[in-house]
Amino acid sequence: MITGKKEKPEKKLKIKNVRHSIKTQMITAFVGLLICLVVTLMFINGKFLEPYYISRKESRFIELYEKLNEVSNADKWDSTKKNNSLIHFAEKNNISYLVIEKDNDVHTNVHDKNMLKNQMMGYFLNQAQKESRVLDSTEVYQINQSWDPWNQSYYVDMWGSLDDGSQFMLRSPVESMRESASISNRFLLYIGSVLIIVSILLIWYFSKRITEPIRELARLSDRMADLDFEAKYTSGGSNEIGELGENFNRMSEKLESTISELKKANNSLQKDIEQKDKLEKMRNEFLGNVSHELKTPIALIQGYAEGLKEGVNEDAESREFYCDVIMDEASKMNQMVKNLLTLNQLEFGDDDIVFDRFNLTALVRGVLQSMEIMAEQAGANILFHAEEDIYAWADEFKVEQVIRNYVSNACHHVSGDMVIEVRMVQKDGKVRVSVFNTGTPIPEKDIAHIWDKFYKVDKAHTREYGGNGIGLSIVKAIMKSFNQEYGVKNYDNGVEFWFELDVQ
What we know:
- By secondary structure, this protein is α+β, with helices and mostly antiparallel strands.
- The chain has helices at 8-74, 80-92, 113-124, 175-225, 240-268, 273-310, 316-347, 360-370, 372-378, 396-413, 444-447, 459-464, 471-482; strands spanning 96-100, 106-108, 133-137, 141-148, 153-161, 167-173, 356-359, 381-385, 391-394, 419-427, 430-438, 486-491, 494-502.
- It is built from 13 helices and 13 strands.
- A hairpin with a 2-residue loop joins strand 12 and strand 13 (494-502).
- The longest helix has 67 residues, at 8-74.
- The two termini are 60 Å apart.
């Protein structure tokens, strides 16, 4: 739950405790994950490795059986090449084999053939050993898993008859696989222990780097909410929070400078009470609007940051949601700060206006191309009507700002037929650029105020897409600096914004 403002001494103590709690939770989560992974792998080794090994061994038995059949049918037991091939395959797969032909000739790859012979005879005489289990059986062979009391170990056996009537016996121990599983589990345990220790150190380090900027931003946001412009962000960083902090610093300096200028002007206008009151009203309105616009996102960032530190979110999805909210609000505030700085420069004449002759048609086309993604996200279709290249006199960069603000405003308010039309009409040494969007007309009572700073016709909708009521104020300031006309016109099916520039 997003919390409100608290007493600063209590907050500082709480933040310290929460920071420790977050580190503990992160370490617990990641270490727990590693432990679960190691335990799971050890369980899989112990539970499924033996069945998998036996299944693979059955395949090798069948393959060796086919090789024995091939040699027996061709009567190539005396072939050194064939015998070496059988012996190599058997030893490679840790299999002992014994074949007794009809004439009692014995072929094997072990020195003590009597053990295999006795085992085979036992199977043929239906004298199965204790703890014997049939794994597979056909008309010509049978595969068993059995316990050998003499060797005190388990074996996988295969016995039966070859195509020529010869009797055969195959055997492979299971204990080697179990020993491998045991070694593998010990190895996993050692590696897991090392990984846990390394993870604790790394998580402790990175959690500190994550929480410290958030703590500073929380303190900064609290001071900014109280209009303390001496607050400075010092943690740095190249992400959105770092960029927001830098823009906070710039805004703080600019606002402090603006307030200082306003105070000087107020002192110099002591004899003109009306002008003094007017300036004072403007100053209070500007600061009040800034404070109002900043408090909501600041409170959200502060609240979600505190919630994140308090560990109210137990799962990774919730933590990701909290971080997304913080980043989203930071991005909105960052954009508002940039717009405020731009507007402040325009209104106080800090920005020089350079008049150059440029291709207005190409500029508009380039802006529309760069904003195609925004239009697609809004589901709008942009139509550009321009028959020829038109050259105009103005500051090209600021004209681009005006066009972008108009098109962005159209994308955020388009509805109905979802069409945005951009037109350029040249007449009497002027060119008029208009941006029309289908949708709901602006109420007449609001038309006179839409150019005012921070004014919003639909506050809920504006908040939804991150608007702050500054865009049209920037358009107004730019066009006034050009000494050119601009305006808005309602239609039954939409709204049209326009501006004019000199072409001669």
